[in-house]
Amino acid sequence: MPRKPNILYRGGLQLLSSPCPPPHRYSYIARPYATGSDNPAADISWPSSPTFTPYELFQQDRRAAYSKSRYYEMVKVYHPDRPCNGHPLCRDLSPEVRLQRYRIIVAAHEILSDPSRRSDYDRFGLGWNLHPSTAQSAGAYDPIFSNATWEDWERWHNRHQRKPETLVDHRTFATFVILLTLLGGALQASWITQLHNGYESRVSEFTEESARLLKGRKDNTVHQMRSLDARVEHFLIRRDPSGCGLKEGEQPVYEKVLHSRKGSGASAKAEGAGNQKAPDNDSGEADGGGP
């Protein structure tokens, strides 16, 4: 029979003395975490058949749920940006074949990871047009997940743009640019030559004109100042055109030289005039002495 609790009265309060249950002990259970692959040493070799299916590529059962573990392991091996490090599955492959297999892996993953695309493939075989010999995707352009190189990303970004039409061949355009450059250089060289010749002709004309002017002045100076007195007078006049001298003691010298020169010049002119009148008088007397 079950044991009845004892009823105790303490301070007018009714207490029930029942056995207390033992404290609950919490047990700690370690939670296992998911890893990229439960079996890292799983077989990820490439199918030997040339017409394999996505299920055969990932060794996936058609009725089982899709598991990404084999996909991750194969991406680690065939991704073109990862080093091979002597892996037996990729060390003998060329970069082109490795990139081709990576795109096939991505295409198979997209089919099996999407329920609708997987259903279409199971029912009608849609979406799996990728063969090892062609390396072409199901659509006109590869999906974003298969962009492995810079060229793939460029094609993906330009998938909605029309291919630009080439109006002129690149070689023809380059030849035209080169000929245009040569023609411009020839015209510029001709213009520079003409400019240089014109400059030289103007310099030659200026030199000849200066030489003629200097020669004329030299001849005039030599003709006017044949004597020493004339040269001294010319020097004094050029030094002080007023004829008074620049210093206090120079005025008598100026007056002596210049006034003596003027006096000799006036006497020479008077003698010349007298000589001209004498023949006139002689001719008059000859006329008066006639009959």
UniProtKB/TrEMBL annotation:
Superkingdom of the source species: Eukaryota
Protein known as: J domain-containing protein
Region annotation Disordered: where it falls in the sequence: 258-291
Record-linked Pfam families: DnaJ
Coiled coil start-end: none
Domain J: 50-125
Compositional bias segments (type: Low complexity): 263-274
Residues making up the signal peptide according to the UniProt record: none
